[in-house]
Design brief:
The complex is a heterodimer. Chain A is an alpha+beta fold. Chain A is built from eight helices and nine strands. Classes of the chains: A alpha+beta, B alpha+beta.
């Protein structure tokens, strides 16, 4: 009898371990993740505009139909990326996600404080490799550190009324993500 | 031995399934009928919320962008039913813009593209006190009318953009959120 109880308690404890391991491992194996859903429609290291609210909603759930959206699926394996995003009239934001869907950084047009949001995305290692004595660039550049080499950047622009949507989409079409020029060019 | 392994598998996988289906179990900010998970938009998201999100395929609103409040129920706890007329009335917390959108239970847009999917704060008609009233109903209404199909459950998502809520402001039951009231349910 005691033996049965011991086995049962062992089973419950092991169940706890199974539970924790599966919860922690789930993001790595999820096939329906936002990243996986965007792979077919987004080339690597290029900005593409998502088709529009009706179609977006079947692509990713819970998208805000008042927004035009572009996505850059990035891979920093070849080096840092530079983002140039023109600001629309009402509201523009950039949200940075890891491949596992963690929103590690987001910035909006007001926080950026410019007509064009410009920033560099790089890994911690690539940032450490930047030339240090570069005061000009350090003060002027917005650098975002990605926790991993791959992830997603979602650029969103609000059309406060449906009539503004074509204009917002046109502005958003100018958003770019591309390989940063080598650091020495910037110093020269 | 076999019993122990069976118990472990059933309990462990069962607990995982239950905790990652539906809403994130921890870190919920509840105001009236509305629920938000402000930490889901940050790098400090807990593993349960992350598992819930990744299973759903949705991307959370980043905390530098805004915060999303969701409700599937009225203030009285009744599930939102498209058959009934539901009123969303009051004010929202401070934000540069907000949007209110209606989705089906799976998070898809409910209405065909030619119909209204939601409102932005700029489109809303307000009264003299600055309060708004949005009527969610399958039948056309004067004022701020948000159409829904004639039947089915749905959810409302109120997204606040460029807002201090959830980041710098300690938010709780005192946060001003609109009331959700169901008032007419024809048989």
């Amino acid at each position: 009898m005691i033996r049965w109880l011991l086995w049962l308690m062992f089973g419950i404890a092991l169940g706890g371990v199974v539970h924790l391991v599966t919860v922690l491992a789930l993001p790595r194996f999820a096939e329906q993740s936002a990243y996986a859903r965007l792979v077919p429609v987004s080339p690597v290291n290029a900005m593409v505009q998502l088709p529009g609210p009706a179609a977006d909603s079947t692509l990713l759930p819970l998208m805000d139909p008042a927004f035009a959206e572009s996505v850059c699926r990035y891979d920093l394996g070849e080096g840092p990326l530079k983002f140039v995003v023109p600001v629309t009239q009402a509201y523009t934001s950039l949200s940075f996600y890891t491949r596992e869907g963690v929103a590690y950084y987001a910035i909006n047009d007001r926080a950026a404080g410019r007509r064009i949001i410009e920033l560099d995305l790089m890994t911690a290692d690539q940032r450490a490799d930047l030339p240090e004595n570069d005061e000009m660039t350090a003060a002027d550049r917005l650098i975002v550190e990605s926790p991993g080499e791959t992830g997603l950047v979602l650029v969103r622009a609000l059309a406060p009324e449906p009539g503004f949507m074509p204009m917002v989409r046109e502005t958003l079409a100018k958003a770019r993500c591309e390989a940063s020029p080598p650091a020495q060019d910037k110093n020269g | 031995m076999l019993i122990a392994l069976t118990v472990a598998a059933v309990l462990g996988l069962g607990a995982t399934y239950l905790s990652v289906s539906g809403q994130p179990p921890f870190g919920t900010l509840q105001v009236g009928a509305w629920q938000a998970w402000p930490r889901s938009g940050t790098a400090t998201i807990d593993p349960y919320a992350q598992a819930v999100l990744i299973r759903s395929g949705a991307l959370p609103v980043g905390s530098g962008d805004g915060v999303a409040f969701v409700t599937r129920r009225t203030d009285d706890g009744e599930p939102l039913n498209a058959r009934c007329e539901t009123v969303v009335r009051g004010i929202t917390p401070a934000a540069r813009y907000w949007t209110l959108t209606v989705y089906d239970e799976a998070g898809r847009l409910m209405n065909p593209p030619e119909l209204r999917q939601g409102f932005t704060s700029q489109e809303i008609v307000r009264n003299a006190a600055g309060e708004f009233e949005i009527v969610v109903s399958p039948r056309a209404r004067a004022g701020n009318w948000l159409p829904v199909p004639r039947a089915g459950r749905y959810m409302l998502v109120l997204r606040l953009y460029d807002t201090p809520i959830g980041i710098t402001t300690p938010s709780g039951p005192g946060t001003p959120m609109p009331a959700v009231i169901q008032r007419g349910c024809p048989a």
